[in-house]
UniProtKB/TrEMBL annotation:
<comment type="similarity">
    <text>Belongs to the binding-protein-dependent transport system permease family.</text>
</comment>
<keyword id="KW-0812">Transmembrane</keyword>
<keyword id="KW-0472">Membrane</keyword>
<protein>
    <submittedName>
        <fullName>ABC transporter</fullName>
    </submittedName>
</protein>
<feature type="domain" description="ABC transmembrane type-1">
    <location>
        <begin position="91"/>
        <end position="301"/>
    </location>
</feature>
<keyword id="KW-0813">Transport</keyword>
<dbReference type="Pfam" id="PF00528">
    <property type="entry name" value="BPD_transp_1"/>
</dbReference>
<feature type="transmembrane region" description="Helical">
    <location>
        <begin position="280"/>
        <end position="302"/>
    </location>
</feature>
<feature type="transmembrane region" description="Helical">
    <location>
        <begin position="91"/>
        <end position="117"/>
    </location>
</feature>
<feature type="transmembrane region" description="Helical">
    <location>
        <begin position="168"/>
        <end position="187"/>
    </location>
</feature>
<dbReference type="InterPro" id="IPR051393">
    <property type="entry name" value="ABC_transporter_permease"/>
</dbReference>
<feature type="transmembrane region" description="Helical">
    <location>
        <begin position="37"/>
        <end position="61"/>
    </location>
</feature>
<dbReference type="InterPro" id="IPR000515">
    <property type="entry name" value="MetI-like"/>
</dbReference>
<dbReference type="InterPro" id="IPR035906">
    <property type="entry name" value="MetI-like_sf"/>
</dbReference>
<keyword id="KW-1133">Transmembrane helix</keyword>
<keyword id="KW-1003">Cell membrane</keyword>
<feature type="transmembrane region" description="Helical">
    <location>
        <begin position="233"/>
        <end position="254"/>
    </location>
</feature>
Length: 317
């Protein structure tokens, strides 16, 4: 006769029931993907990011006009760089534009993203309209805004009571304001899209419990939505910081570093040194310095925010 119950041990206890095969083979089948899955991405990153960065680092210690072979110059480019007043000013301008971008874009993108996460059909239609700037390149956006802000034929010429002489790009304050406005118009939808997805991932039971406790929309936003968006806010800010420190094409087309050097940020100054002054060694030094500054600022944001100590709630995520 065959027993349908589990065998009983000598101590009277039945052994624990297993749900499947055990051992190394089973662990291999249910474990995380091996390194082979990441190999294509690692090779791509090495060829198009690490190798060029190493070459730029080497070039920063040379003197090269673009013709002939580079000549080793030691630390001459770096010494000149840190004694160049235009370079020091460009770094401060880059930081200023980055900070203004974060201050302006973050609240706008959060509000737009949270609003777009709603279920109404009109929100989906308007969200699609708001995200149109994401389909345009920075060059196209800059050309568009340069035409709109033209002091002779653009919007300022038709509203002198608001814009005065209409030459918004002729003053330091006006030029910086225009750069912040154009960047916000183009990139706020991207960050709003991040917040839209993060908002939709918030469990609805939290809002239901808050309604039972009598919390209104405003209290729900500040006590549920914002805390749940913390990781997304940090990610968005890091993207803004890196993007702000490496902005180039918008300045090239809208202001060309002017008036004077009032909008000559580090990326544009690198372009001037390398491709206008044919000082590719000095341009490479500026490029490497930008990489180091952007990396350092991103690490500080990650460290201060505690993002490096956060862990996913799902295995393998």
């Amino acid at each position: 006769m065959v027993s349908l119950t589990a065998p009983v041990a000598k101590d009277g206890h039945r052994p624990a029931r297993t749900s499947g095969p055990a051992g190394p083979a089973a662990r291999r089948r249910t474990g995380r993907p091996g390194i082979g899955w990441a190999l294509p991405a690692v090779v791509f990153f090495a060829l198009f990011a690490v190798v060029p960065l190493v070459l730029v680092a080497v070039l920063s210690f040379t003197t090269w006009s673009g013709l002939g072979s580079p000549e080793f110059a030691g630390f001459d480019n770096w010494v000149t760089l840190f004694h160049d007043p235009v370079m020091i000013k460009s770094l401060w301008l880059s930081v200023l534009l980055t900070v203004l971008g974060v201050v302006v874009q973050t609240p706008l993108s959060i509000l737009l993203g949270v609003w777009a996460a709603g279920p109404q059909r009109n929100r989906a239609v308007l969200s699609a309209v708001f995200f149109v700037p994401l389909l345009l390149s920075a060059t196209a956006v800059s050309v568009l805004w340069r035409a709109l802000l033209d002091p002779n034929f653009g919007v300022p010429s038709q509203a002198a009571w608001l814009f005065g002489d209409g030459n918004l790009l002729g003053s330091r304050t006006g030029a910086i304001s225009v750069l912040v406005l154009v960047s916000a118009w183009q990139f706020t939808p991207l960050h709003a899209l991040i917040y839209q997805g993060a908002t939709r991932a918030i469990p609805a039971v939290l809002y239901q419990a808050a309604e039972i406790d009598g919390a209104g929309r405003v209290r729900q936003f500040f006590h549920i939505t914002l805390p749940q968006l913390r990781n997304s806010i940090i990610t968005s800010v890091i993207l803004m910081v890196v993007g702000g420190l490496t902005t180039f094409d918008t300045v090239l087309i809208l202001t060309q570093g002017g008036p004077g050097t009032d909008t000559t940020i580090s990326a544009y100054y690198m372009y001037q040194k390398a491709f206008k002054g044919f000082e590719f060694g000095a341009g490479a030094a500026i490029a490497l310095l930008l990489v180091l500054v952007a990396t350092a600022v991103s690490l500080v944001v990650v460290r201060v925010s505690g993002y490096d100590r956060m862990a996913g709630t799902k295995e393998g995520m």
